[in-house]
Structures are given as C-alpha cells and as structure tokens.
From TrEMBL:
Protein source organism: Rhizobium chutanense
Disordered, as annotated region: 80-103
Domain of life: Bacteria
Name of the protein in its database record: Transposase
Amino acid sequence: MVSTRYRRKDLKLARCHIVKAAHRIADQETMIRTLELKGSPAGPAYALLDRLYDNQRRKLDRLKLIEAMLCESIVFPGLRPPSHPPAKARTHLRLVSPPDHLL
C-alpha cells in the first residue's frame, strides 16, 4: 500500500465532498417522492439512490481515515523539542520611566 501524507486541506476537501454527496442524496430522494406522487415507475431512481448511498459511505470512510492520519501526525510532532526563534528576532524589554509632566 502506498504511504500517503494527508494535510488539513485534504480534510477540508473531504468534508466538502461529504456535503455534496448529502445534497445529491437529498435531491434524489426528492425526485423519488415526486415520481411516486405522479405514479411513475421509480426503479431506476432507486438504483441511482443506492449508488449514491454507497458513494457517500466510501467518502465517509475516507474522511475517517484522513482524520485518523491527521490526529496521528499531530500527536507525534509534540515529541520534538520546541524550536527557538533566531537570535536576531529576540526582543528585549526596556524599562522607560514616564516623563516628569505625566507624573
């Protein structure tokens, strides 16, 4: 199996795909209700709905995999020592007394 490194943008994209799949399912369910009210045969519409459900299930499985991989990669970087900013970037606090007219 190929090792894949997932990033946060992959998680965001997977969530967008889940939302789109849910919208497609809702649209197809509405179409089936409309066909049943008209008395038209809805066999092919149910077949498409089954495929949409399978597609959504696969996308949910992929989303869970990406979430698990990201959680795993977030836990392990904490084991590294904290990095310090470069020496030039350090700032020093200077104590400045207020002017006499403000006292």
